[in-house]
Amino acid sequence: MSHAKNFYAGPSVLPVSVLEEIQKDMVDYKGSGLSLIETSHRSAEYGQVHKNAMNLVREIFGVPDNFKILFIGGGATLQFSMIPLNFLSGGKTCDFTLTGTWSKKAYADAKKVGNVNVVYDGKDNSYTRLPDPSTLKASPGSSYFHITSNETIGGIQWKDWPDTGDVPIICDMSSDIMSRPIPFEKFGMIYAGAQKNLGPSGFAVVIIRDDMLEKCNPNMTAFLDYKVHAEKESLYNTPPVFSIYAMSLVLEKVKAEGGLKEVEKRNKEKSKLIYDVMDKSNGFYKSPVDVSVRSDMNVVFTMANEELEKEFVAQAKAKQMVGLKGHVSVGGCRASIYNSLPLSDVVALVEFMQEFQKAKS
Ligand SMILES: *Cc1c(COP(=O)(O)O)cnc(C)c1O
């Protein structure tokens, strides 16, 4: 059986070698006599996996010593709640950039907790562009400035960051974490659901600066308190042991393959293949997205009509290319080409795109 070419937006492609390693160790984890997923999270076996995963995140991402790495069950959507509950309660204000579906969801939750100042709203351009970061300012006294680094549904990605002075930037990197180096000096906190570039679903990776931990709401319940997760090294309660283990295998692979600079180079090469075919298609494939902010992770495109798009998705599926349908809210097509998707799968896609255009022109 061959493995399909996986263009799903999330959960998404994992390296076949990682899936095979998981399979090999599933029943008897490294000779322990037990599966890792039936082993205590306080055991030596899991303790080693947990520590290794944290060390790999610190090493591969280049996380500075004054940041803590947390693994928090629940995904990025829980962070939409935890961030305002910790940093906005008691009449505080934050700044938000509204750039698409995900930032608007984060915004809607923040607004329920405190005051939110909208610094940028891309409504007028249907969220197909991003502002020049140098034109953006944080408001005085703001608790944080929220950015979504890659809008997974709209297919737009920040290429540079605003200078917000003393106001810490909190960035949702769910769909492009580990796709390029992270300039930590620009951020107070970053977070990402694990299921796009890192591993299986079930938790979020949160990387938070020490001074942010000092500013957390002192009246939070335990699980919602970042300080509790930091003090207990993400073992306050039972972590999603399987997902963290699987992520550690993905991290090992990224490390062996040369780290984030190398990953970024490959990602740019992959996205360019698709954008080039679109640009040379005489309008057969159209991108709604401004060229300067095209995402290297989620490539969105449309065709002349919905019938054609449906046929494209169906024919692709027959060729074992799955997950190319655009998000229900925006229609069209979307190729999510995360880190673990091999270059050869992107080559297969662009060859099919050219064939399909020829057949339909
Ligand atoms: C997928 C995604 C989320 C939601 O993540 P969950 O883990 O499902 O809560 C949030 N933000 C962005 C940018 C995403 O791509």
From TrEMBL:
Residues in Aminotransferase class V domain copies: 6-348
Modified residues (N6-(pyridoxal phosphate)lysine): K196
Protein's name according to its UniProt entry: Phosphoserine aminotransferase
Keywords associated with the record: Amino-acid biosynthesis, Aminotransferase, Cytoplasm, Pyridoxal phosphate, Pyridoxine biosynthesis, Serine biosynthesis, Transferase
Broadest EC class assigned to this enzyme: transferase
Subcellular location: Cytoplasm
Annotated residues for binding of pyridoxal 5'-phosphate: A76, T77, W102, T152, D172, Q195, N237, T238
Role according to the record: Catalyzes the reversible conversion of 3-phosphohydroxypyruvate to phosphoserine and of 3-hydroxy-2-oxo-4-phosphonooxybutanoate to phosphohydroxythreonine.
Source species: Oceanispirochaeta crateris
Family annotation (HAMAP family): SerC_aminotrans_5
Record field: catalytic activity: 4-(phosphooxy)-L-threonine + 2-oxoglutarate = (R)-3-hydroxy-2-oxo-4-phosphooxybutanoate + L-glutamate; O-phospho-L-serine + 2-oxoglutarate = 3-phosphooxypyruvate + L-glutamate
Known pathway: Amino-acid biosynthesis; L-serine biosynthesis; L-serine from 3-phospho-D-glycerate: step 2/3; Cofactor biosynthesis; pyridoxine 5'-phosphate biosynthesis; pyridoxine 5'-phosphate from D-erythrose 4-phosphate: step 3/5
